[in-house]
Amino acid sequence: MASAAASAAAVGTLAAPVEQLRHLAVELRLLLPGVRVGEARETTKEFNREAFWRRLNEAAVTVSGEATALTEAFSRLPLPSPQETQMFCEQVHAAIKAIIAAYYSLPKDQGITLRKLVRSATLDIVDGMAQLVEVLFITPAQSPENSDLISCNSVWVACQQVPRIPRDNKAAALSMLTKSVDFVKDAHEEMERAMEECDPYCNLLNDTEEDSSDNRGEEEDEVLGCPNNRDSYWSEEDQELIIPCLALVRASRACLKKIRISVAENGKKEQVAQLDDIVDISDEISPSVDDLALSIYPPMCHLTVQINSSGWVTSLFLF
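^ that's the sequence the OP posted. Answer follows.
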């Protein structure tokens, strides 16, 4: 009788399902900072690569399954009871803790670049699950086809990416170098398109005709044949400066491609620290190229372009 009464009292103290989900979302969010700065667990055991990836993949599958079960339970009425909700929340929390623990089991000596990729995947999973739980308690189910729940699929997408993570630090370095090459390529193409589109005399006649009735007085002060909006086009001096900027970006791309080829052909999986250093330096190039590309848009500040160009050269000389 006493145990039955205690059990009934415990049931009576359970929060409502929505409040339990709210609390779970907060708990998941609180795990994120620890994952961002967390270090690998110290252990005397020899690292087993196959066992690690099997553990990580299984943990991702478990999280995906728990996300599906949670969504199915809370996407239709009636909502689960407080007891059932407690079970769902405990299972989700345990699944998330398991994949975090799997990430922590990857030693530093396997490569910082590889750890960053695994950490990023883990963060995406935890964040995706937190988003899903937040949608569940913010948008109570109204029908079996809840558009908010259907659109909130980031946790499943994140789980599906786990098997695609590079399996060693060399593969991780090649993956990061490829992203850098692609980024610089996109920046170069964007700069070339901008040069084609920012014609100082494009649509000048139409703009002049449209504004003639309202701005006749202002036009009298304009120099005949010159564009009115000087913030939307490049001057001749600007265009002369853009040409070497494009050359710098092309050189960046060529440099990164050669580095990637060299790593692919000559890099050794055992050269963990050297591979990490190469990736760290290449990571400096992409932001420098981005800053340079953004600084050339009109109205152009020549000093800013020169500063960003110097930053790019400094990054490149690190190689």
